């Protein structure tokens, strides 16, 4: 049962470095922030993100896909760990696996992802490199709800633009996009926690 004043319980799925996780952990330690990270789950044992969680005093779990019969069994194990901790919102943050309907239906409207482009441009891997290859002048970051089907689809919650500079490499562009990611993700979680997001078809209305 939730009581007025309770903070939203958030679970974060990670695979690697965890800089977006860190942004969420930092936000949740600020007074008045309406969400708290209660568990971090990685599909990779050596993910630096796990250390970030432990340092912040947050439970860190590893779920190795090799220990499960198939994708669905793995996804259902994630659902069960998250439900056991009464997670109200799941954030994927550099989580390198595609989640099946077994997962997305369990957390429909309660799971978000962050992606380093202005979706629907450049979904999938290496979004920054794709932006450079296409010669776009502006790219950015997107937070969206998870949807079934293709990766990096689903109703868009927040976006921020980042200009491409002459001389940008994938690394320099990625670094500038990350600054925006670290601002956007905690903001999207805050809006969700405050009940200010309504999904209407493909659109998310922010009140
Ligand atoms: C970020 O650029 C995120 O948008 C993408 O993967 C990267 C993860 O970085 N999905 P980190 O692990 O949060 O540092």
Order of helices and strands: EHEHEHEHEHEEHEE
Could you say which small molecules are bound to this protein? 5-O-phosphono-beta-D-ribofuranosylamine
Structural class: alpha/beta
The total count of helices amounts to 6
Q: Main beta sheet: strand number and arrangement?
A: 7 strands, mixed
Helix content: 25-40%
Gyration radius (Cα, Å) is: 17 Å
Strand line-up across the major sheet: 3-2-1-4-5-6-7
C-alpha geometry: globular
Average predicted confidence as pLDDT: 96
Low-confidence stretches at least 5 residues in length (pLDDT < 50)?
none
Give the amount of beta strand, in percent. Answer: 25-35%
Distance between the termini: 26 Å
Number of beta-strand segments: 9
Question: What's this, in brief?
Answer:
With 207 residues, this protein is an alpha/beta fold.
Topology:
Layout: E1 8-14, H1 19-28, E2 35-42, H2 48-55, E3 59-62, H3 71-84, E4 89-92, H4 101-106, E5 111-115, H5 127-134, E6 138-145, E7 156-163, H6 170-193, E8 197-200, E9 203-206
Parallel strand pairs: 1-2, 1-4, 2-3, 4-5
Antiparallel strand pairs: 5-6, 6-7, 8-9
Helix pairs in contact: 1-6
The structure holds 5-O-phosphono-beta-D-ribofuranosylamine.
